[in-house]
# Entry
Amino acid sequence: MREKIIAASIELFEQNGFSETSIQDIVDALGVTKGTFYYYFKSKEELLMDIHLRYIEGLLREQQRIINDGRRSVREKLYAIVYMLIHNVERQGRQARIFFREMKHLNEEHLQKVKEKRDLFRYQLQALIEDGMKSGELRRDLSPSIAALTVLGAANWSYHWFRPDGGLTDAEVAKQMITILIDGMGPAS
Amino acid sequence: MREKIIAASIELFEQNGFSETSIQDIVDALGVTKGTFYYYFKSKEELLMDIHLRYIEGLLREQQRIINDGRRSVREKLYAIVYMLIHNVERQGRQARIFFREMKHLNEEHLQKVKEKRDLFRYQLQALIEDGMKSGELRRDLSPSIAALTVLGAANWSYHWFRPDGGLTDAEVAKQMITILIDGMGPAS
# Structure
């Protein structure tokens, strides 16, 4: 039931917005009582936090797995991270949109929790880029912080536009994006 | 007064969200009556559309000016567009955040109007990239559409993280970003 409540809420939050969706709307959609909702969640806000934390914790686990894989080059790891982010938009588009749009409705304590994990994702990406600079796989005259934010922005922005039926697959989009980010759009020199 | 209503609303929408802000909150913040509000705007939603349209129309005018400047190379034009987007986040951070977050509260007709202009911005950027491919300033083996979305994503994402007091200026951030996008993060070959 916990999973069903989360799934129904994600659908309603995306359609109508977090503020416009009441607990009553959620339980009506499932044909259960408010008591059932309160058995699993203290409030609508706690449910929203749950959605946010699951989303970012899933991404962090996967990012860690990619970075720890000793057989992959930095380029391959960057590709895998960009692919993961775009694939995730394809697979979990609703969660992704709620994740980016509804953060302001979290309370201060919960917001801090989610922000720490988002920051962790960013700094792990930055550390990977710094490793690449040290090993000579990446150029050293760029700010690792701006480089990480450029990669993140390019990939995350896909939640605004990526459609699974849009001609290119998530893997092809990620491949082109990594080509741009690592080799550049300029002519081959 | 129209300008004052817009300014006060932007502040309230950013702090509390569009749904949570009432017309009463807006007129209270200005010490005027609801009648004053209705003299300028039919509804809160019409006001939101006004904020959205001003924002995107300003960007479109500036983009057109950059693209039409015959003295600039494609690289310089891309730099100018990325700089404009980041500078705009610095200068008009609130409008930018409302622009990206509160779009779902526009009605269908207004949403279409704003979407058309957003799409125009994207397609003009894409056309610039296609010009660069034709002239040999940019490599030809990339999808111009993915290239445009990668540039847009990198620059627009800055509304999540760019702070004027964050160490690098908007011009320096734009310069590093364009270096990544055109020359790549890979080692000089």
Summary: DSSP finds ten helices and no strands in chain A. The mean pLDDT of chain A is 91.
